[in-house]
Amino acid sequence: MTASLIFGVFPLGIAGGPDGIVAGPPDDFEAIGRMVREVQGEGHPLLPRVYVLWSGADSTAAVHAQIANLVAGGTPWDLVLCYRDPAGDVAAWVAFVAQVVQRHGRRLSAVQVTGEPNLTWTGVRESGGSSFAAALDYAGIDIYPDVFGPRVSLDALPGTVERLLRDFREQALATAGIPAAVPIRICENGWPTGPDRPEDQQAEVLETIIRTVHRLRAELNVTHWQLFTLRDADSSKDDLFHRFGVLRSDYSPKPAFHSLRRLIAELG
Q1: Which of 25, 42, 81, 203 could cross-link 259 (Cys pair, CB 3.0–4.6 Å)?
Q2: Which domain of life is it from (predicted)?
Q3: How far apart are the C-alpha atoms of 37 and 50, rounded to whole Å?
């Protein structure tokens, strides 16, 4: 029997835009907890995702403190270690990653090493070889069809999602020497609301994507779908980077919130 999809979410009210971090009202952690419990319903707990930025050896102590604070609350985070060192000190980065795993690994659900790396897949194979492929627990992909490229009609969306996942599995990962036995996680997927992006359409788009992923999960070995993001950074702004949430920035739900709750109950 094919396993159910594992659902996750980035729960905070910030996003990365072309000019840096976009934000709005402060995060309300009581509201976050309440809305996460509501959307996950009686099913499995949502996998909570969080990002920390390492900007070089001088940042190591501060980032360790940030991670220690995160895990102290008992939440089994899906932790993303983001490499942002202008000096390119790879040795210090490797040491930092090893320290994170040694100190905090048992209290985390997962550790993602880098996000959106700028390596070619051939370069991954040549640099890492078979030992790198054997060490992987999963390969993550962020997908944003109908957001950053040409608009995609709802009818064409399943085919677009399938093509993205097949290209990742059959071309990118295969070129990198990563076997089909290594699961794929969709680490980020979302659809912003705003001008020309109605809230009702957000619900339709996310449901279409999730059902497509669910249909392909056995064939392509896809185990996770994670939402970016729970709430808007600032619903008063028209910029799409401020409005990726299935909640508005006052934590009131958009239609997609209720749709997601139903899908998690059905497919999770």
Answers
A1: 203
A2: Bacteria
A3: 17
Place of tokens 């809230």: 199
140-163 pLDDT, tens digit each: 999 999 999 899 999 999 999 999
Helices (H), the chain: 29-40, 60-72, 90-104, 121-135, 157-167, 174-175, 199-220, 255-267
Q: How many residues does the chain have?
A: 268
| Residue entry with tokens 């078979």 | 130
82-94: pLDDT as tens digits: 999 999 999 999 9
Percent residues over pLDDT 70 in the chain: 100
Q: From residue 132, give the alpha-carbon distance in Å to each of 32, 106, 166.
A: 37, 21, 22
**Does 17 have pLDDT greater than 90?**
no
d(CA 259, CA 268): 13
Q: In the structure, how many helices (H) and strands (E) does the chain have? A: 8, 9
CA–CA distance, 111 with 132 (Å, rounded to integer): 15
263, 259, 257, 262: which is closest to 245 by C-alpha? 257
Contact 50, 82 (CB under 8 A): no
| Structural domains of the chain, with CATH | 6-47+126-267 (3.20.20.80)
Structure-block tokens of residue 197:
């992006």
Cβ neighbours for 33, distance < 8 A, ≥ 6 positions apart: none
CA 121 from centroid of its chain's CA atoms: 20
Query: What pTM was computed for the model?
Result: 0.95
pLDDT > 80? residue 52: yes
